[in-house]
Amino acid sequence: MSQRILDFQDVDAGYGGVAVVRNLTLFVDAGEVVALIGPNGAGKTTTLMTVSGFAEVLRGTVRVLGRPLPKLRRAHLIGRWGVHHVPEQRGIFYGLTVEENLRLATRHGRVDLDRAASYFPVLESLMSRRAGLLSGGEQQMLALGRALLSEPRLLMVDEMSLGLAPIICEELLPIVRRMADETGAGVLIVEQHADLALEQADRAYLLSHGDLVFDGPASTLRDDRGFLDATYLGLGGGEESAP
Ligand SMILES: Nc1ncnc2c1ncn2[C@@H]1O[C@H](COP(=O)(O)OP(=O)(O)O)[C@@H](O)[C@H]1O
Ligand SMILES: [Mg+2]
Known about the structure:
The protein is of the alpha/beta class. The protein has a domain at about 1-75 and about 155-160 and about 185-235: P-loop containing nucleotide triphosphate hydrolases (Rossmann fold), CATH 3.40.50. It is about 30% helix and about 30% strand. The protein contains eight helices and ten strands. The strands form two sheets. It has a six-stranded mixed β-sheet with strand order 6-7-8-3-9-10, with helices on both faces. α3 (about 115-120) packs across α4. Bound molecules: adenosine-5'-diphosphate and magnesium ion.
């Protein structure tokens, strides 16, 4: 049986004592790619922020590698637990070079630039370029390269496709899949654009207005477009979301 990396049990989470996500039960096992999808404002980012310590656990328990998250939010500690979070803004240092960005992400003192280049060959010729001068796709590859070199047990990627051409996402998602397959990391990807994520994911969770409306094999959602579309259009129950 593969190891449980992330485990939400009946969790309410949010900000300032107000729950944004309610009654969430979710897990990610080693080597899995799990997609967390749902329309804008559903609570996807909040779920990741809860793991990183930027949003509060108001009820229930969140465990990483079996250890409950501390009550006090300590975002700076989560990296030590083997969690790497690529936020929507990618979390790279725009004024530093590609190589410097990769070196800074490395844990355990091993800087294996060749390993990053094996996953993202484009980065090899860009090592001395400042990250701010890269294209959006190259920046996202750098963000994922940083994630790879940090050797995470849990990798969380928020809206990888934001601002990128669909063809770039189609290239990047299989690489994320490869990271899970080859390193055994558990991967939780958040995507507003469900189609591409569902193609690579093993399992999926669908959030709508902070409530879980589906969890199961990604293939089930791939095959049931009607349900997916209804949820995205706000027809899946609950109040209509603001535009
Ligand atoms: N820092 C914050 N403080 C208070 N409310 C927030 C904060 N961030 C997000 N929210 C609210 O939480 C809800 C869910 O947001 P979010 O998790 O970003 O959704 P998603 O990532 O699915 O689009 C939204 O109503 C949003 O306004
Ligand atoms: Mg979001």
